[in-house]
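USER: Fancy drafting a protein?

ASSISTANT:
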Amino acid sequence: MQNTPLNALEAINQKVKLGQNFLLAGSDAFLIDRVIGNIRNQLKQHDDVDLSIVYADEVKNKAGELAEHLDTFTIFSSNKLIVLKNAEQLNKKELEVLADYCQSPAESQSLVLTVEKFDARLAAWKKISAACVRINCDPPRWGGEIRAWLISELKRIGKNMSPKGIEEFSSRVELDYYSAANCLDKILLLVNDRKSINEADVLASLGTTRTGTLIDFYRALGKRNNKATIEAVEKMLNADWEPLQVFFQLYRFFLILYRVQLLRKKHLSDSEISNKHLGEIFTSQRKEYLDFAAAYSISALESIISILLDTDSKLKSSSIDKNMQLVLAIISILEAK
């Protein structure tokens, strides 16, 4: 049995057969549902399979009842797909039942276990894990994983998107597969039967998303464009951003630019800075950040850090209107020399 965990994006379209058992580990409900959906759909293509969903808290401290779920066949079909959700909640006796079953599984049914995480040191989990196809269902950690998901989805549905469109999509959606899927659905409604999706389609559909506004905010700051920056701030505040949330993004942005300029002062090349020191930035946006930094000297950035520290104190303690305080700080930042 394969022991190396698969990435959920690889497993979503993987071929499966009745009798295989699966261990889905991770907290991303969207990926878990997609993987289970693929398993169920593929099994039903070849066999008349009944679905049975069991929740761990329903059989906790009920090892005998769990054994019945695993061993009982329905009157409608001799084939079953059993999904046991939140299996990490099971106690030792139920885990031993699962481990015993996984050592000698029925060929006429498949078992899917979902866990947020499991203790691989326990003997029962070692047996279960070794006997199952393991699939990681973790939330995306950076934009490149959203990009990989997008490319996989486009291939699955027979659409293609321009490189610029992919870049804009990856930078504008939330770092969340469910949100990304909703955004892709919006675009698909816009393009209808058209196979090709371009940058304009993405901007037309997603230009007003929270993350899209944030990207516009960064680009306006990077170009030291007063009018566009204030407009982006107003959009965020009108979309229920708190002034302190906007301030945090402002502070993060200029700390990155300051880091870039300090590394340049140490004679590191832009290529080295991009590859080794901008890991938290989308790969597709690193060149932009290098350009943004070029618009601010080190002395200007030092002044900006002082403005930000002063603004932080005022936003947390001052009775002055926080929205106005934020706008005044941004004007001072853009004028810094």
The chain is about 60% helix and 10% strand.
